[in-house]
Amino acid sequence: MLGRLYESQECSAARALEVVGERWSLLILRDALFRGYVRFSDFERSLAVAPNILQKRLESLVRDGIMETRAAENSEHREYVLTPKGHDFKPVVMALTAWGDKWVEPGPAVFEHSGCGGVVEQELHCSSCGPVPVRRIGARARRRAAKKRSR
Amino acid sequence: MLGRLYESQECSAARALEVVGERWSLLILRDALFRGYVRFSDFERSLAVAPNILQKRLESLVRDGIMETRAAENSEHREYVLTPKGHDFKPVVMALTAWGDKWVEPGPAVFEHSGCGGVVEQELHCSSCGPVPVRRIGARARRRAAKKRSR
Hints:
Number of strands of chain A: 6
Largest interface: A-B, 83 and 83 residues
CATH topology of chain A: Arc Repressor Mutant, subunit A
Oligomer: homodimer
Number of helices of chain A: 6
Low-confidence stretches of chain A: 1-7
CATH class of chain A: Mainly Alpha
CATH architecture of chain A: Orthogonal Bundle
Strand order of the largest sheet of chain A: 1-2
Shape of chain A: globular
Mean pLDDT of chain A: 86
Number of domains of chain A: 1
Helix content of chain A: 25-40%
Order of helices and strands of chain A: HHHHEEHHEEEE
Structural class of chain A: alpha+beta
CATH superfamily of chain A: Winged helix-like DNA-binding domain superfamily/Winged helix DNA-binding domain
């Protein structure tokens, strides 16, 4: 039981949701992460989204440091590429997908290890004893670096 | 590279986001999953949310099969308890939290194995060769049960 740790709503999950919680932003990230899209025209065709909305969402992802722009080769267009902060959203998209696959219906794709082709799934892993079932996971206060005590 | 698998936007991740993508719904789920809250008054106090909004969000979670209501002991009030479908959102909240912890700032809580107290983290696990770094994960078409071929 978490007790009074979450007095502020500004927990990390809520902050992450501010980036990915908007539907188009999630779908842009999905296409960037798993289809490798970088061009405005590819996102536009894939998502069938109005260009002005797509533009706003891409600008928002750039402003948040999830994507950055670069000059495209042999073209005047800009490309939108994921930053490390953006690549790290992959487990979030995978967790959402796993839930939807199980509780809505199996989607069209599975995740694979691009090295060996094995199926990749998320595992909840205890530092002491290995895989843990979801019901056996709680939360406790993080031990803060004791700044004041060190004075 | 995923290719043309995701022609429809209705991938599993998007469907899951329809449930958890609204900020209050995520925070209700967080409180239910990690604080064990079941009472309207506990959610209300924790989230400082207007009662009519909280009521709508709880009803929506019940309608989606994420929560169900039951009679409280020694009280006329109803309680809101997670279903198995709701409990399975835990990895999604954990993935969002891990991202926020890394890229915004470390939040107030860590996840622990309630059996041994060890820290629990999500691991991306290949069925053939064990833990996989995020950059080495792609997507491919799920092999469908070949209904037509079997005729």
